[in-house]
């Protein structure tokens, strides 16, 4: 079982930036596609970005051009660089492997207008 710990969230003004980190406890993490998800109050959790173990990325339409997902397999860590943040990006952000159930506690991102 892999444990994931998200960090880097906070309160930022619209137009600002944050960098989220997701640290994995096990080295097998490097073999899996990883995803960043978010869940806003009263809404379902949604997948916003994925990165394969080889580094290929994919993004949900609303974050394209603003968010960048990356990973450092040597550090067992996945990152989400979020630029040009909007109030609608406010949510709890989680990382997970789409084929697994490794959910961490998430990290809160709040964007003020």
Residue runs with pLDDT of under 50 for 5 or more positions: none
Count of helical regions: 0
**Gross morphology:** globular
Strand content: over 45%
Which structural class best describes the helix and strand composition? mainly beta
Largest beta sheet, briefly?
A: 6 strands, mixed
Roughly how many Å is the radius of gyration?
A: 13 Å
Neighbour order of strands in the largest sheet:
2-10-9-4-5-6
Number of strands: 10
> SSE order in H/E notation?
EEEEEEEEEE
Distance from N terminus to C terminus (CA atoms, Å) equals 40 Å
Helix content: under 10%
Q: Quick check: average pLDDT?
A: 95
Quick gist of this model?
The chain is mainly β.
Give a description of the structure.
- There is one protein chain.
- The protein has 113 residues and is mostly beta strands.
- 0% of the residues lie in helices and 48% in strands.
- The chain contains no helices and ten strands.
- Strands 2-10-9-4-5-6 form a six-stranded mixed beta sheet, with no helix packed on it. The chain has a four-stranded antiparallel beta sheet with strand order 1-3-8-7, with no helix packed on it.
- The protein is globular.
- It starts with a strand and ends with a strand.
- The relative contact order is 0.33.
What would the keywords be for this entry?
about 0% helix, four-stranded antiparallel beta sheet, mainly beta, about 110 residues
Task: Give the helix/strand layout.
Blueprint: E1 4-7, E2 10-13, E3 18-24, E4 34-39, E5 46-51, E6 57-59, E7 67-72, E8 77-82, E9 91-96, E10 107-112
Parallel strand pairs: 2-10
Antiparallel strand pairs: 1-3, 3-8, 4-5, 4-9, 5-6, 7-8, 9-10
């Amino acid at each position: 079982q892999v444990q994931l710990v998200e960090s880097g969230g906070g309160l930022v003004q619209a137009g600002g930036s944050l960098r989220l980190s997701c640290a994995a406890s096990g080295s097998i993490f490097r073999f899996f596609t990883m995803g960043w998800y978010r869940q806003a109050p009263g809404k379902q959790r949604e997948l916003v970005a994925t990165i394969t173990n080889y580094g290929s990325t994919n993004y949900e339409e609303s974050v394209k051009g603003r968010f960048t997902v990356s990973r450092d397999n040597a550090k067992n860590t996945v990152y989400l660089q979020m630029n040009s943040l909007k109030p609608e990006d406010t949510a709890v952000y989680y990382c997970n492997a789409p084929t697994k159930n490794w959910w961490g506690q998430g990290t809160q991102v709040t964007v003020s207008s």
